[in-house]
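User: I've been trying to design a sequence by hand for this structure and keep getting stuck. Would you show me what you'd pick, starting by listing the structure so we're on the same page?

Assistant: Good idea, let's start from the same input. This is the structure you sent:
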């Protein structure tokens, strides 16, 4: 039986076994290729997660018995922060975990921690936002275009720049929080700030905080602590995943001003990460885990009824532990900005649509470009380096084994999965209007006014 730490759920194994026995009479009609599954090398598994809405694929795979269907006995365990989570995967205390998309890549290149961490599964698209304190919002709002008494969206950082510039004249530093140096949140926040003319700072050999030349000082705060840290005045805004932006709205202490979907349409968010050694030792287990999570993501995007049920499950203390109403505010097709300004946001949380679960190389390359843009990668790299690094970390072949098994079992259709070389093609939908071609990383980097490699040698481009 799968179980979570401190929260056992109703045992469904007996029910499933009885149902299976009742169906044995028809089993002979099933082709052997479909009736047999590769046995997992390791059945007892412990996975880590952070208390965020986008841990949902792990939680639903557990709660709906999809791990059990694959012969896996899973324990889910909340972790204190992203560093602890990564360290525990690397040292083997956890078999795998809900990770920031940048964590396997950062570990691979040796930024912060050096280890071979890979991913064969993307957990979701979108799901983050940037929130500012009420006082900052009151100043920003003076500079925003309005329509019917409400701000026109998307809100750009140009309005925040006016506030930051005013603070500078008063000698006041402007501080914002993000969750981890290689987090999606760090790169989204930096992207948004830079698009509005604010330098979020650079990482250098002597400045590992990433604040060199910064107009806005960014620092790390664990996700659940974001609202309280802002309320205390330690930071004046933050970028975080849900439900911690909506929590600020409910508590009346801040206003989400822009979602990551508005910064980069359908951006990849979290991944499921394991060490390469673990994957090599447990190839069948890895495929089985991915199968279960694909099914969970399909379930999450299948209907609003399922989303509402997922909200109830995620609100349990062992998972996210926030009120149902707070989680539902962004999980059921809407997003609330200023209190009372609730707007349709059908794509704020995407778990399966738009091939959300496929580990695209181009997603990995984008994160690597941002690491270079802000100095986490200390020197210019040729395009080939970006592609080679992406292919070391992102493992679509493992994903497709899981997908093909689900198709063979009648649990998914071929159309559910992309036919791709691993690159999405040219992507637009960025708040600054800059298009991204994952096959041309240096060309992409050369387009930004703020950032490293705004001028790149022709020899480094393909």
């Amino acid at each position: 039986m799968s179980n979570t730490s401190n929260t056992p759920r109703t045992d469904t194994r007996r029910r499933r076994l009885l149902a299976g026995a009742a169906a044995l009479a028809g089993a002979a009609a099933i082709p052997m290729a479909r009736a047999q599954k590769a046995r997992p090398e390791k059945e007892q598994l412990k996975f880590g997660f952070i208390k965020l809405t986008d841990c949902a694929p792990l939680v639903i795979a557990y709660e709906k018995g999809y791990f059990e269907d694959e012969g896996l006995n899973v324990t889910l365990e909340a972790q204190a922060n992203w560093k602890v989570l990564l360290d525990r995967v690397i040292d083997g205390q956890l078999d795998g975990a809900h990770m920031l998309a940048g964590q396997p890549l950062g570990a691979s290149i040796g930024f912060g921690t050096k280890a071979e961490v890979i991913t064969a599964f993307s957990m979701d698209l979108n799901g983050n936002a940037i929130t500012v304190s009420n006082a900052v919002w009151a100043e920003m709002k003076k500079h925003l275009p309005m329509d019917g008494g409400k701000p026109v969206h998307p809100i750009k950082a140009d309005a925040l720049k006016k506030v930051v510039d005013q603070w500078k004249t008063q000698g006041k530093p402007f501080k914002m929080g993000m969750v981890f140096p290689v987090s999606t949140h760090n790169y989204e926040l930096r992207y948004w700030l830079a698009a509005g003319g604010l330098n979020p700072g650079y990482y250098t050999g002597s400045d590992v905080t990433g604040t060199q030349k910064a107009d806005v000082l960014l620092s790390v705060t664990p996700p659940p602590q974001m609202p309280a840290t802002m309320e205390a005045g330690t930071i004046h805004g933050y970028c975080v995943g849900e439900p911690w932006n909506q929590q600020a709205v409910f508590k009346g202490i801040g206003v989400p001003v822009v979602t990551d979907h508005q910064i980069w349409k359908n951006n990849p968010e979290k991944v499921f990460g394991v060490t390469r050694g673990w994957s090599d030792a447990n190839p069948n287990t890895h495929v089985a885990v991915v199968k279960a999570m694909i099914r969970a993501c399909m379930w999450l995007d299948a209907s609003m009824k399922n989303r509402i049920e997922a909200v109830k499950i995620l609100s349990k203390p062992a998972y996210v532990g926030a009120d149902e109403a707070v989680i539902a505010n962004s999980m059921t097709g809407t997003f609330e900005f200023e209190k009372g300004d609730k707007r349709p946001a059908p794509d704020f949380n995407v778990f399966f649509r738009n091939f959300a679960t496929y580990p695209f190389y181009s997603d990995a390359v984008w994160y690597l470009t941002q690491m270079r843009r802000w100095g986490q990668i200390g020197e210019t790299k040729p395009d080939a380096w970006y592609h080679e690094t992406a292919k070391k970390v992102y493992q679509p072949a493992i994903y497709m084994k899981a997908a093909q098994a689900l198709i063979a079992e009648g649990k998914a259709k071929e159309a559910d999965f992309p036919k791709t070389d691993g690159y999405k093609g040219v992507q637009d939908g960025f708040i600054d209007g800059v298009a991204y071609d994952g096959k041309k990383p240096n060309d992409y980097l050369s387009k930004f006014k703020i950032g490293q490699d705004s001028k790149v040698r022709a020899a480094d481009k393909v």
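That's my pick for every position. To get oriented when you compare it with your attempt: The chain has two domains: 3-21+30-125+270-359+394-416, 128-263. Residues 10-35 have pLDDT under 50 and may be disordered.
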